[in-house]
Amino acid sequence: MAGHDVVVLGIFVADLAFRAPRLPVMGETILGQGFAMGPGGKGSNQVIAAARAGGKAAIITRVGTDAFGEIARKAWATDGVDTSAVIADPDAPTGAAFIFVSTETGNNAIIVESGAAAKLSPADVNAADHLFAGARVFVTQFEQPIETAMAGLAAARRHGAITVLNPAPALPVEDAIFALCDYVTPNETEAATLTGIAVDTVEDARRAAVDLVRRGARNALITLGDKGALLHGEHGTHLVPAFPVSKVVDTTGAGDAFNAGFCLALAEGRPALDAVRFGCAVAGLSVQKPGTAPAMPTRAEIDRLLAG
Ligand code: RIB
How far is CA 153 from the centre of its chain? Predict the structure, then answer.
């Protein structure tokens, strides 16, 4: 099937989200203030966000033939995601994530176990060749093996798609991967891991972005939470401010929302800076609801925010 706006290589997991005032210390039990289980995983969150925002979107992944795998299939069907490159693996469980959400700030801490998707291989990418033909934007992350991410980026390049690497969670990597990236989109923590530059200020982000471009990325786009996102590369250096948010409920998945919005806007032919603003709008809306995939906004909500 040709002509996808956004093709995502990444994982699905069931998110088990606990709200509490703080994390327990080792050996301690504390009472929570809320629990929810729902669809998650960075790749799946991104493909759902892109589809809900109006894009034709597909995911390349593996899930188990279990109850969590069923949650994945229902979530993708609800938003019209193309699942023709989803492999059902009877020998491995679908993954899960433990998510702590602070009731004070809405910020999160996560442990993710990729499950069946940890077996995603370059051969799985090759088997999804039908998705790359005509794809406008390809995006992947680091929740499946890096060699598989590289195979996806290389395949997308060969087919002329714009390539986006969201290097999350943070891992030190060889520079060869950056040469396959039109955009690399770390947050502050991930940028620090990739470059060795602590990213606390916009100036730190600019230095980290310069380093990522020097190492081969065509552009670096560093997300900075409520400060917005810094784009550096072939379009110069620009800070795009975040949209003001009156009440942050849950920041989990905000990076996925941003990446999905950015990718979809590029696929629609918007200039890079407009695409960053679109990504900021999707992220700003997502933090106002609990959860990850369930918090992704509709196109009408995004357009309303962008129209001011
Ligand atoms: O980016 C948020 C996601 O990271 C969560 O949905 C969790 O599953 C982890 O993969």
Answer: 15
